[in-house]
Every structure is written in structure tokens, then in C-alpha cells.
Sugar ABC transporter substrate-binding protein
Amino acid sequence: MKFAGRFCMVLSIVVIMVSAAGCMAGRNGADSRMTDQPERPFDNVRITAYMAKNPVADILRAHLPEFEKQTGIKVDFQALTNEQLSQKMFVQMTVGSESPDVFMIRPLEELSLYENNGWLTPLESYAVSDPRYDFADFSSTALESVTVNGKLLAVPLSTEQQILYYRKDLLEKKGIEVPQTLDELEAAVKQMHDPEHGMYGFVARGQRSALVTQLSSFVYSEGGNFLSADNAALNTKETLKGIQRYVRLLGNYGPPDALSYSWPQSADLFAQGKAVFFTDASAIYSLLTKSGLAKEKIGYALFPAGDAGRKPYSTTAWAIGINANSARKDAAWAFIEWASGRDMVLQAQKIGNPGARSSLWHDEEGISGFPDELIPVINESIPIGMSYDRPKVIHVKEARDIIGGIVVKGLIGEDVGIAAESANVQLQELIDSEK
């Protein structure tokens, strides 16, 4: 499988399309000009939208009457749990259904599968058909996350960056500076670890599949990766260094039951005041103070640098796309244009959903839903981030299990190097099977 290139590929496509956009009069002369036309361009058109149950969907549902009044489109808006959404979409796509017309998708988990089966409508021409949509406002890493083989297959709605959370009060008390490198982080974790008094130096995900996303930034920052072109790269010295660092931090300085931890358990331990350092997604910040930890005790920092510098992931967590079999693609795009337009992204960002529009991270209203100290961390993480936090393969779940298994074996005392060699063979077999 070939990776989508870095953003330069996306940018070159966009530049070409923007040049041609001036000659375009919009889809059927209506899709993108709905804001200033007296008539409603899609009167009596009905579309179905499958959305995940999350803050973005809540905002869109609340404002849906405005969209319907403005466009004439009637929307069958269905909000589903993540699992329900994935299962229902897989069934609908497999049988070639025209419904739903538009739907939310987790790009890094499902996009390669959908692209491989031709289930998504490429959106490049739609995205540049109206300059007021301001497609160039989306961050490069967010767009790269939704681009496969040079094709824009979805539009970003929510983003995540891996950052470092820490107990500001405890570091100040000990006179320890915020770690800037992974070596400094490990030294600080070791110094602060005090399990006899209920304080662990470090916490992160330990569940086999879930941990891969957080492991990724350790691997990237040491110069490694899960894949190199079409080859598994789990046994390279750089990748091994990142994996071994993660195993040491969580195994030596984390809670004894870390193998059962995904993000809710890790965040809860930190929020209870039982861990000094915690690394996970930037979007988790709002859960920490809700669990009781005083806001002034929480510090936010860039992910520390390894041998290759700082390379945290900066990805699209949720995106929205159009069913390739939809008979109402223009109306579906009108919905996407509205849902991912600046106004709706702003509304979602104001309640703490990290959006993908760069301008809103420098807008007073756009940053109002985030702690002051977190905003520069997010802004600095976006341009240096990697656009994926797991291998870009079709069978993502299987790949995550293979990679996570290395860490699990390390946490139970087995040799990480031997585990990585075995896992590398398994991952290569998976890659080859997809060809």
C-alpha cells in the first residue's frame, strides 16, 4: 500500500484546483452560493446523515433548522455511538446502499478501507468551488490525515495532538523544570515516582490496541516509524528505542494495573492526583478538571524531543465524507460545506472541540473554550506533528494488536527486541496480504 505523501502533495492538488475554481460556477449553479441567493437551491431534497455521538454532532443538530431553512434540504440526522456508526456504515457500504448520503468517519481507522473499496466520493473539486469556504484555512496535517493516494476523501471536523500533561504544583515544589526531551522526562519521572505515598511518576495507555496511538509519538520522535514504504519497520533501532522508552516509563513508573488502562483510566488516575506526568490527546484536557483536579495544578507542554526532535502526532480524529453511491452528492456537499464551515467549527471549538481551521486558533472567540496555557501548545504541535498515529493499512485493528503486543510483552517482563522481531514478521504478512 502506498502512503499519501506529505502535505506538499495535497497542497499541489489544491493550488491547481484553486486556479481552476474561478471558472467554476458551483455544482449545478447552486451548492456553494446558498448564502446570498434569494431562492433555496435544494427545495424538497432529502438527505440522510449518519453522525457520531460527540460535541460536533450536538452543535450541528442544534443548528440544523437554520441549515434546512437556508437551503431547503431536509436532513434525516442520525447520531450513533462509535461502534454503531462503524458497524452500520460497513453494512451499508458493503451492499452498495445510496444511504446515508453523508457521514462522519474516523480517518485513521477506516479511511484506507473505504478508499480501497471505492466507498467515498473524492472531494477536491467541491472543496475549492467557492472561495468563501476557504479550503486553505484547514491545517496541513489535518488534510493529510484525510488524503489517500492523492485524493481528498473527507473533510476534517475534529483534531488531536499528543501533548504532555504534568502536575505544575509538584514540579515547582521539587524545583524540576518541565521536560523538553524524552531523556529529561524519564529523569523527572524517576525522581517524582513515589508509589508508597500513592504517587506514580507516569501514566499512559497500557491496553494492547489503545496504546499504539500514544506509543506513536515516542517512536516518531526517536526517528522510527511503524512502516517504511511497504515494509514493516518495528525492529529498527529507532523504532525499538521509542518502544523501549514507553515500556520503561509505564512499566517502571506507572500503576501496577497499567495493562488495563486506555485513555479513560489514564486520565482518571491523573485527575485523581495520583500521577505526575500523563501523555495523551490534547482533547482530553476537559475531562481532567471535571474529575476534581484543580485547574491551576495542571500544566500543558509540548511532547518532549527525542533523537529526531519533537514529532507528536497531529491528526484528524473525526471527518465527514460523501457516500460514493449517493444520488444527492451536491446536497450532501452543501451539508459538509456548512458543517465544516468557519461558523460551525467555531461553535464546536467554543465548547472545547479542537477544530482543523487554522484561523480559529488565532481568534479570540475560537480559543475561548481552552485553557490559556494549552493554546500555544496546540498551535506549536500542529505544524510539527505527524498526520497519523497508527500504520496506514486497511486492517488497522489487526495492525494495532500486533504493535501493541510488543509493549504488552515488555510490560510483563519479556524481551522487547525479540517481541519486535516476531511482530515485524506478522505486520509484514499483513501488509503483503493487503496487496
User: Anything to note?
Assistant: The CA atoms of residues 209 and 401 lie 5 Å apart. The radius of gyration is 22 Å. The mean pLDDT is 91. Residues 7-159+315-384 form a domain with the D-Maltodextrin-Binding Protein; domain 2 fold (CATH 3.40.190.10).
